[in-house]
Amino acid sequence: MNKLTCLFPLLFLIPLLASCAEKKQVYIVYFGEHKGDKALHEIEEHHHSYLHSVKESEEEARASLLYSYKHSINGFAAELTPDEASKLEKLAEVVSVFKSHPRKYEAHTTRSWEFVGLEEEETDDIDARPLKNDVDDRFRVGRKFLRKAKHGDGIIVGVLDSGVWPESRSFSDKGMGPIPKSWKGICQTGVAFNSSHCNRKIIGARYYVKGYEKYFGAFNVTANKDFLSPRDPDGHGSHTASTAVGRRVYGASALGGFAMGSASGGAPLSRLAVYKACWAKPNEEKVGGNVCLQEDMLAAIDDAIADGVHVISISIGTTDPLPFQQDGIAIGALHAIKRNIVVAASAGNSGPKPGTLSNPAPWIITVGASTLDRAFVGGLALGNGYTIKTESITAFKMDKFAPLVYAANVVVPGIALNDSSQCLPNSLRPELVAGKVVLCLRGAGSRIGKGIEVKRAGGAGMILGNAPANGNEIPSDSHFVATATVTPTVVEKILDYIKTDKNPMAFIKPGKTVYKYTAAPLMTGFSSRGPNVVDPNILKPDITAPGLNILAAWSGADSPSKVSIDQRVADFNIYTGTSMSCPHVSGAIALLKAIHPKWSSAAIRSALMTTAWMTNDEKKPIQDVDGLPANPFALGSGHFRPTKAADPGLVYDASYRAYLLYGCSVNFTDIDPTFKCPSKIPPGYNLNYPSIAIPNLNRTVTVKRTVTNVGIGNWTSTYVFNANPPSGVTVKAIPNVLVFNRIGQKQRFKIVIKPRTDLVLNATEKGQYQFGWFSWTDSDHVVRSPIAVSLA
């Protein structure tokens, strides 16, 4: 045999080996909107044909397909090599091809709905009940609002999350009427979840795991600590669902009796449709959240649209915002908007750093997190006589003073300096910690985990010190030792005491639930901030709602601390994140949908934004964690006021086609076969949005807007323009008076924003955003919009 013959098999294998070396990953191939000319089975076959064009065989093509999106979204998810994905991306009919990445949701309600003026028995006679506040008529207005909305009856809210715990009292269907005839969904069964777990409250449930299994391997109940079904092992999904639409439950509280009261969702008679697309990470502690794969979420949204939901609530996001054409949530939400389904999503938990915001698409209502006026007040006493009120919901108590140590002084040798103060796992020396109170600082590691480490080392208690970025925001956790959480200023006092006293001592007093403890709302430090890094011409977040220490339903399969050594079970739990603020807005949307069934998604967003609070309950500006007034990159238009949103006066409406036109400005095109971008594309800031953002302003910019008169009973009204311009610019409206003589009438106007020529900016001022607002006011309404401008 000659050398060439010997080499031939090797030469033949080289391309094959190269092909094998290309690692397959899940990609989403997106075609945009369906043309409506194919049946469901034809759509799937059509998708198979695309896969077959890049695969070796039909069998390989079929085996690679995870999902065929057939209802509203036209596309598929499949396992492809980078080369195969590249070939598909070059096809003219393909809008985008993007790699799937795990999108992890983060910990992104007895008091919260009462705090915004909504609390009432689901069926009580409103006029027969005494008011809770004789000075402020918020509750009377709120009860009338709830009665008009029928507590959300007839509205279906789809929740994308980790599933549901159907046995929770929050999901009882007692007294509820028949399932809406418009409902087309199913009750998908699985492990520990059968058809009886759906009822007239939970009217549908599905789960999506194909993408998760491709990424992590075949599902294993033991390793995953999860249910292969719509059942919630985690608590997060049940918490968000009950916050939005949970039934009223009397005597609800967290373990230890904290936050005792009547727990209710915002729209307690709305129906719940569950779409489980988030799963526990295999063989890992649950602290830190689950993972949600884009292909699974996109399948869930596609089904939710076809099932007939009216609202989609998504407490899921990412710390790495994606272009719209690669963002599964943004793509799915746009298709929902075409069917007039309102989509609300959480802003994320990566604040207060700027530019960290999730879900920035303008067709999504993006929700930040603020605080309540409720606190769980305990106390901390030091041996030098210093005492201070603290917050804690731990059930563990101290009997007497104990020695006080700083974590950095009692760590095992070799711990990195930056980690030495943070009570990370196995970092503390038991011989130096036993029987003592340990000062631990927030930073790396979970808050719960720090208490676990103190307990492991034999500590009697923990003082958890906030980092400066957390400010005065105190999340409450069910710790394993007596715990007091303190602000950065108090941390400094404690450290000084430890350094200067030969025998420092401390005593931690247990907490109690206290209402109207502090001015509220305040912005939380964790809530992700703008500017919008995907498109700075759209101001985000849109609005804020309560997200700190929210009590809601929990999973019977998970402990309140979400760690494996905790064997406690809780029906309700206190949880924190923009994941908690999002369903507050989703519940409010359901109520507004019930009152105004013909309003578009954009009209509902506008109503919520233009009527939002910019002041706290003491009539002072809502503060940020630095103690200064919060700007729109933190709180958007302000803190939501559902009762005011029912009658906003004017709304900024936008159609599905308006969003397609906007997409032309950000290269998100060819989505709908019936729409082509014009030769002259208007700037993105001309989308008819209830806020204005202009980056790098160096000339006069004219922003176009249109408002629609929706004032209840206001057939004739005159609105006058007013503005508080951002520093360094002038703002005027043309015209500055709008006259309406009928409901539904539209009026166009222009906002002219011009740099002031009398100001000279230094280098540090250039590119810095300044903030202001403008409003249209008649005798009954103030229609207010924020402005953000940076000068070039």
UniProtKB/TrEMBL annotation:
The reply on keyword Signal is: yes
The Inhibitor I9 domain extends over 26-104
Q: Which domain of life is it from?
A: Eukaryota
Read off the Pfam families from this record: fn3_6 (PF17766), Inhibitor_I9 (PF05922), PA (PF02225), Peptidase_S8 (PF00082)
The alphabetical list of record keywords is: Glycoprotein, Hydrolase, Protease, Serine protease, Signal
Name all PA domain ranges.
402-489
Domain named Subtilisin-like protease fibronectin type-III is located at 686-789
Where, by residue number, is the active site?
A: 161 (charge relay system), 236 (charge relay system), 579 (charge relay system)
Which positions carry the signal peptide feature in this UniProt record?
1-21
Q: In what residue span(s) does the Peptidase S8/S53 domain sit?
A: 152-620
Q: Which residues form a coiled coil?
A: none
What does the sequence similarity comment in the record state about its family?
A: Belongs to the peptidase S8 family.
Q: Report the protein name in the record.
A: Subtilisin-like protease SBT5.6
Q: Name the species this protein comes from.
A: Camelina sativa
